[in-house]
């Protein structure tokens, strides 16, 4: 069941309660110090009008007013410092909670969101919680407090004066009602338009190579500029319609003299109030305008915060793979057994049907099949990026579902088709596999992955910074670095999805040899289109249209498996074509 948004917010704020309590305390002190000049001022004006004041008396009252003003500023500063401290900590917790959730949810769910949407939520939308938190919690409580106390004070002078001071509240409620009527929907549309700009922007940057190659600059830029113009028009339209109503509220609500001035004068003329009471009443009513103004502004902030929390909730409540709270299970070996597995990305769809594969420990298993036959999907299931729909996968005699995430991560090294390198040096990228590796271990891993030669040729060798994109390295070089990373991790199982796709034949041979060496004491599972890479595998699994059609060694399959024969034919024809060209 969806958690109430206020409860979600409270979960994150409760860890910083003490800071907020102190912040509210200083905010209340600040607001009350702000009332003192009005009270003292009314005394001063009465004394001057009735000529009862000495020069010393006037000076004392002026100093008192100044002191109250200085105190108000100091207390406000302390209050907002504390609340900002708390608010930024909460933002930090919220962002960590979202990224943590994304890590624990299945890859399929994460891929459902565009990079723009994820960036927008983690950075921009959570940021919208900061201003209300840092200002609203302390200031709202303090301003409500000051309104209540001022009204009590006015009631003590004369209840009619107090009621007159509050007359603007029901008057301002009418435009406020119209403003708030469809606020939620409008705010959601606004966020949607904002998200659209983010998405198009990220797409434009990520796809810049394709855009330039296909001379799409005009079209793509139009998509980008249309999103920006759409956002501008939506925001302006909304502002224009809301602005009039908002201005009416902003000018009406704080105009407390509307009631107090005529009622106060009438009461004074009727001798129900003396001069000091009248002046005090009018000044207090003026003093009310600031807090009332703040309260009206907070209605906007409150709604903006609500929408931001509702949006982050979508991420905080993503379904997670149940990795939590499991005991570490002892693995008998590094074998993998796929038993009667069925899987589809959607509920009623089948991408893999009735898969049964036995991969003994320390063997080299290749998975081959036509494009779209389900090879990458199968590898991702072995790595538990998704859960199977039925059947099970056993690792070292234990069901994959019963392993903790840490244990799974430590047992499997996974090299994907897109070798992603992070900003930093080559050494840092390889060391991701084992952060405490010695320089010699990094060099050994690079040698095994056949990338040491080209790294040593770079002027800064292992320390070469690849922060400005992977552009300075070829696709094959990037792939070899990611293989080195997986080798250094030294996990008992290595899964590789087309690791040699962009590697030249000479390096491919060397990597092949390295992988075969690795398979002497590791289980290696690899998808490959180039069948020459897997000819010497201990076992080749042939997939066709999501099913295993045969399993065996190269020579046997070539004799007995028509699907493999077709794959081999088309592979050799492609190779001959390459040679003849
Ligand atoms: N994230 C996804 N969501 C939905 N469908 C997907 C997803 N990934 C793959 N598919 C579909 O699953 C099927 C198998 O895809 P998969 O990538 O596993 O095949 P493959 O054999 O590895 O293909 P290739 O050799 O071209 O990489 C395809 O029909 C593909 O469209």
From TrEMBL:
<dbReference type="GO" id="GO:0015421">
    <property type="term" value="F:ABC-type oligopeptide transporter activity"/>
</dbReference>
<protein>
    <submittedName>
        <fullName>Uncharacterized protein</fullName>
    </submittedName>
</protein>
<dbReference type="InterPro" id="IPR017871">
    <property type="entry name" value="ABC_transporter-like_CS"/>
</dbReference>
<keyword id="KW-0547">Nucleotide-binding</keyword>
<dbReference type="Pfam" id="PF00005">
    <property type="entry name" value="ABC_tran"/>
</dbReference>
<dbReference type="InterPro" id="IPR027417">
    <property type="entry name" value="P-loop_NTPase"/>
</dbReference>
<feature type="transmembrane region" description="Helical">
    <location>
        <begin position="56"/>
        <end position="75"/>
    </location>
</feature>
<dbReference type="InterPro" id="IPR003593">
    <property type="entry name" value="AAA+_ATPase"/>
</dbReference>
<feature type="transmembrane region" description="Helical">
    <location>
        <begin position="275"/>
        <end position="292"/>
    </location>
</feature>
<dbReference type="InterPro" id="IPR036640">
    <property type="entry name" value="ABC1_TM_sf"/>
</dbReference>
<feature type="transmembrane region" description="Helical">
    <location>
        <begin position="161"/>
        <end position="180"/>
    </location>
</feature>
<keyword id="KW-0067">ATP-binding</keyword>
<dbReference type="InterPro" id="IPR039421">
    <property type="entry name" value="Type_1_exporter"/>
</dbReference>
<keyword id="KW-0472">Membrane</keyword>
<feature type="transmembrane region" description="Helical">
    <location>
        <begin position="20"/>
        <end position="40"/>
    </location>
</feature>
<dbReference type="InterPro" id="IPR003439">
    <property type="entry name" value="ABC_transporter-like_ATP-bd"/>
</dbReference>
<dbReference type="Pfam" id="PF00664">
    <property type="entry name" value="ABC_membrane"/>
</dbReference>
<dbReference type="InterPro" id="IPR011527">
    <property type="entry name" value="ABC1_TM_dom"/>
</dbReference>
<feature type="domain" description="ABC transmembrane type-1">
    <location>
        <begin position="21"/>
        <end position="304"/>
    </location>
</feature>
<feature type="transmembrane region" description="Helical">
    <location>
        <begin position="249"/>
        <end position="269"/>
    </location>
</feature>
<dbReference type="GO" id="GO:0016887">
    <property type="term" value="F:ATP hydrolysis activity"/>
</dbReference>
<keyword id="KW-1133">Transmembrane helix</keyword>
<keyword id="KW-1003">Cell membrane</keyword>
<keyword id="KW-0812">Transmembrane</keyword>
<feature type="domain" description="ABC transporter">
    <location>
        <begin position="336"/>
        <end position="570"/>
    </location>
</feature>
<keyword id="KW-0813">Transport</keyword>
<dbReference type="GO" id="GO:0005524">
    <property type="term" value="F:ATP binding"/>
</dbReference>
<feature type="transmembrane region" description="Helical">
    <location>
        <begin position="133"/>
        <end position="155"/>
    </location>
</feature>
<dbReference type="GO" id="GO:0005886">
    <property type="term" value="C:plasma membrane"/>
</dbReference>
């Amino acid at each position: 069941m969806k958690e109430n948004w206020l409860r979600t917010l409270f979960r994150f704020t409760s860890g910083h309660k003490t800071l907020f309590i102190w912040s509210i305390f200083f905010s209340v002190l600040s607001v009350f110090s702000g009332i003192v000049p009005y009270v003292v001022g009314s005394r001063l004006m009465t004394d001057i009008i009735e000529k009862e004041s000495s020069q010393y008396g006037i000076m004392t009252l002026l100093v008192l007013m100044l002191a109250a003003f200085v105190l108000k500023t100091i207390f406000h500063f302390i209050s907002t410092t504390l609340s900002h401290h708390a608010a930024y900590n909460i933002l930090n917790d919220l962002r960590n909670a979202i990224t943590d959730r994304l890590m624990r949810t299945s890859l399929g769910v994460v891929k459902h969101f565009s990079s723009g949407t994820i960036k927008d939520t983690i950075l921009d939308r959570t940021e919208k919680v900061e201003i209300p938190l840092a200002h609203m919690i302390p200031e709202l409580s303090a301003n409500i407090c000051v309104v209540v106390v001022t009204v009590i004070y006015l009631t003590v002078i004369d209840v009619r004066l107090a009621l007159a001071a509050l007359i603007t509240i029901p008057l301002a409620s009418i435009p406020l009602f119209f403003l708030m009527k469809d606020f939620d929907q409008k705010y959601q549309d606004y966020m949607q338009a904002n998200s659209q700009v983010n998405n198009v922007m990220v797409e434009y940057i990520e796809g810049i190579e394709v855009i330039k190659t296909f001379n799409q600059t005009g079209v793509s830029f139009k998509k980008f500029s249309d999103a920006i113009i759409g956002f501008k028009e939506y925001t302006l339209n909304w502002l224009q319609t809301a602005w009039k109503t908002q201005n009416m509220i902003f000018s009406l609500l704080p105009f407390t003299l509307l009631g107090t001035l005529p009622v106060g004068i009438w009461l004074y003329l009727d001798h129900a109030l003396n001069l000091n009471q009248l002046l005090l009443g009018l000044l207090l009513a003026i003093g009310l305008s600031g807090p009332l103004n703040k309260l009206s502004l907070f209605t906007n902030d409150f709604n903006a915060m609500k929408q931001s929390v509702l949006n982050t909730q979508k991420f905080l409540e993503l379904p997670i793979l149940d990795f939590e709270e499991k005991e570490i299970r002892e693995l008998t070996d590094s074998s993998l057994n796929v038993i009667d597995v069925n899987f589809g990305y959607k509920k009623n769809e089948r991408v893999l049907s009735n898969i049964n594969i036995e991969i003994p420990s320390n063997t080299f298993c290749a998975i081959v099949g036509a494009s779209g036959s389900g090879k990458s999907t199968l590898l991702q299931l072995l790595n538990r990026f998704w859960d199977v729909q039925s059947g099970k996968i056993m690792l070292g005699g234990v069901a994959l579902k019963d392993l903790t995430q840490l244990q799974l991560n430590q047992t499997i090294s996974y090299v994907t088709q897109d070798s992603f390198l992070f900003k930093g040096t080559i050494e840092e990228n390889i060391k991701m596999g084992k952060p405490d590796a010695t320089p010699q271990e990094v060099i050994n891993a690079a040698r095994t992955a056949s990338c040491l030669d080209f790294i040593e040729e770079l002027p800064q060798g292992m320390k070469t910074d690849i922060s400005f994109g992977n552009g300075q390295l070829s696709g094959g070089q990037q792939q070899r670095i990611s293989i080195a990373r997986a080798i250094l991790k030294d996990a008992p199982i290595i899964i590789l999805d087309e690791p040699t796709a962009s590697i030249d034949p000479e390096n491919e041979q060397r990597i092949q040899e390295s992988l075969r060496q690795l398979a002497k004491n590791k289980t290696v599972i690899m998808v490959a289109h180039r069948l020459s890479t897997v000819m010497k595998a201990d076992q080749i699994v042939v997939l066709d249209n999501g099913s295993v059609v045969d399993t065996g060694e190269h020579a046997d399959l070539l004799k007995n498996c028509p699907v493999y024969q077709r794959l081999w034919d088309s592979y050799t024809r492609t190779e001959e074509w390459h040679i003849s060209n």
